[in-house]
UniProtKB/TrEMBL annotation:
PANTHER family: TRANSMEMBRANE 7 SUPERFAMILY MEMBER 3. GO terms for cellular component: plasma membrane. It comes from the Eukaryota. It is found in: Membrane. The chain crosses the membrane at residues 272-289, 296-316, 322-343, 350-370, 382-402, 414-436, 461-479. This is Transmembrane 7 superfamily member 3. It holds the Pfam family TM7S3_TM198. GO terms for biological process: negative regulation of programmed cell death. Keywords: Membrane, Transmembrane, Transmembrane helix. It is a multi-pass membrane protein. Its main location: membrane. Residues 275-479 form the TM7S3/TM198-like domain.
Amino acid sequence: SFFCNPGLLELSLGKFRNVLLNQTNPVEAVIRNIASNVTVIIFQVHAQQSDVVISFDKNPSVNSSGTGVDKGLVSILQPQQSVCTWYLRSLDASQVLSTAISIPYMEKDPIPGGCNLEFDLEVDPNIYLDYTLVDIHIKFAPANLGYTRGANPPSCDSGTGQNSRWRLRYDVYQYFLPENDLSEVVLMSHIRKMSEVQSIKANGIKMLTLTTDDKTNVYFSSLPGQGVIYNVIVWDPLWNTSAAYIPVHTYACSFADLVDNCSSLSKLSTKVFFTALAILGLFTCFFGHRFWKTDLFFMGFIFAGFFFFVFITRVTGLGYDVRLILTAVAGIIGGLFLVASWWRFGSVLLCMFIIGLVLGFLFSSTVFFTPLGDYRVFRDDVVFWVTFSSVALMIPVLFVGCPRILNILASGIVGSYAVILAIACYVYTSLAYITLDLLRRVLNDYFSRAYTNVPFQTNDFIILSVWTMLALSGVTVQLRRERSEVPFPPHPYLTWKRERERRSTNVLDPSHHIPPLRERIHNKLLHIKEFFQKEQPAGERTPLLL
C-alpha cells in the first residue's frame, strides 16, 4: 500500500510501508505500543536513485541523521518507552517512491554498528557502498553486544575475550535483482527479502564470514546494469542471536547520465567491434577448418588483439574508443601475420599452439568463472596465474597428437562464444564475464580482492543454450565434412615453389609460355594508354585508282 499524506505515518514493527516523499513536507513516522522486551529498533528507508533524509529530529543534524538511497537509524529504547518517532523527506523536488520498515531486537541480540568509530552517527547500522566500472566496495561499522534497557552499553575496547564484542561474527550476503529490470517497484519488492535475518538467510547468497579481527570491508566485481543488494548479519555465537544491518543496493551505473547510463551501457564502438567479430566467429564456427586461412586470421586476431589491448591500457592513458580502434588494427595485423607465417613456413604445430592457447584461455577462464574462482587461495596472484596458465596450457598439450580435432573444437567453441559477446552488447548476460573478469584481473592490480559471483537467471540459461547449440552444431558439422579430407592443406609456399619450377621446365605446359609479370604489367599499361589516346586525322580517304 502507498502512503502519501505529508503528515503522519503510522508504522507497525516488522511491517513494510511504501511512502511517497517530497522535499517540502517531511513525513513523521511513528511507532506506538512498543513491547517492554524490545530494547532496540532499527528504522530504515529505501529509494531507488533519489537520496532520502532520515533523522531523529525535524531539523536534521550530522550526528542525528543519514542521507542516501538506503539509510537507517538505531533507536536505543529507554525504560518505559513505548513510542518512537523519526522524520523522513527527500532531497528531490519531485515525489520519490520509497519503502520503510522498523525491525525490533531484544536485549541478547547484537547491535549493528554499536561500536562505530568511523562514521558520523554514534550507532551506525548502515552499509556504505562505492562502485567503479571494475569493482564494488562495501564497508560498515563493527557491532556491539546487546544489553537491557537503561543499562550502559558494553565497552567496545575492554578486551578481546569471549565476554566482549570480539566474539561476534559477520556474514556477508548478496542478492541479485531480476536481470534487465530497472524498475522501482521491482527493487521495492525485492529489498524486503534482504531486510530481516531469516529472510536474508532464505533468499540471499552467503559470500563470506568475517571475524572481529578482519577489516569490515569487502570488494565485489562490478556488474553495470545489474541490480544487486548487499547486507550483513552479525551473529553472537554465545547466545546464538543475530541482527541485520541496513541493506544497500546498486546497479553500478548512473540513471542520470545522458550517455552510458543504466539503460544504454554499451558504447557504439563496442557494439560495432563485437558484432563484426561475431560475424567472423559464426563463419569460423561452421567453416573454420575448411577455410583454414580464415580460421588462422580469426584466432590470430583474438590472440594479438587481447594482448595489445592489455598493453596499451597499461602503458597509455588513451580513451576507450581510441584503444578499441588500435586493438582492431593490431588484431588484423596479428591475424595476417599468422596467415603469412603459415604460408611461408607451413608449420602446423606453431599455428595449432596459438589456436590451442586461445581455446585454453577460454577454458581456463570458464573454470575460474565458477565458484572455484572465489576460493581464498586464488586471492594470491602468484597462485592464480600459475594455476590459470597451467589449465590453459593443458589444452594444446592434450591435443598435440590430434591437431585437426583441436582446430575444429577451437573454431566451434571460440567462434560461438564470439556470438555470445556480441549478444552481451545488446542484452545483459553474465556469460560475458567469463572473459571480462579475466581482463579486469590483468588490468587492475587489486581486482584479486573482489568476489566475482554473478547471477545466473533465465536469460543466462537461454543464452547458454544458444552457445552450447552453436558450438555442438559447428563441431559436428565440421567433423562430418572433414572426416574424409586430408587433415590440413599442403604447405602453400612449397606448393607454389614446386609449381613455379614445373612451369619453367615443362615447355608443353601452356603456363610455361606466359610472359613474366613485369612484361604483362607493362603491356597492360600500354593498352590502357592507347585506349585514352585520341585518334589522329588520316587526311584524304579517296580510293586508289588501279
